[in-house]
Design brief:
Elements: E1 5-8, H1 18-29, E2 34-35, H2 40-43, H3 47-63, E3 70-74, H4 76-85, E4 92-96, E5 117-122, H5 130-140, E6 143-147, H6 157-174
Parallel strand pairs: 1-2, 1-3, 3-4, 4-5, 5-6
């Protein structure tokens, strides 16, 4: 049986959001079970107020599994996925449009150093500035794919799906 994939949507979005839905469908077509936590009630607390409840929800989801999952997150979902990886084992991280910080939240973005990670970001992201994620990726020597797109990465789903599939192949090979 393949490992679990947990896909975390961005703020003020839902588990049915375009990117997480498309990636969940791709994973399912390849035989990977997925979960998409609903952070809607957490997001009602505002950006900074939603981080801790999102982390708790994601951590509880992971702790209920038999093996470390691959985490996929978009924007706020990427932020909390990285932070959760510091506390519980994960098989990998695919992080889209990752913020380096959440204004009003005490911790900056971080992730476990030994976890296979791919960051994908848009050149024209006006919500999460590219220079911050570039600096983080450079400091950690992480793979960073920068696409000609905005924060939503809506025009880049084909490329994101290809990178996701490649990451699934890598996780499967290392299992």
């Amino acid at each position: 049986m393949r490992g679990q994939i947990i896909l975390s949507h961005g703020s003020d979005s839902s588990p049915d959001a375009t990117k997480v839905s498309a990636l969940a469908a791709l994973a399912a077509s390849l035989g990977w079970p997925t979960q998409r936590p609903d952070y809607g009630t957490d997001d009602a607390r505002g950006h900074a107020g939603s981080v801790a409840p999102r982390i708790a929800r994601l951590r509880a989801t992971i702790e209920a599994l038999d093996a470390p999952p691959l985490l996929v997150g978009s924007s706020m979902g990427a932020f909390v996925s990285g932070l959760v990886s510091l506390d519980v084992p994960v098989a990998g991280l695919l992080l889209l449009a990752t913020p380096s910080e959440i204004p009003g939240y005490a911790r900056a973005f971080d992730l476990r150093r030994d976890v296979p990670t791919l960051l994908i970001h848009g050149w024209r992201d006006n919500v999460c500035p590219l220079p911050s994620v570039q600096a983080f990726a450079a400091q950690r020597r992480l793979s960073l794919l920068v696409l000609d797109d905005d924060h939503r990465l809506g025009a880049s789903m084909h490329m994101i799906a290809a990178q996701f599939r490649h990451m699934l192949d890598q996780v499967a090979a290392s299992a």
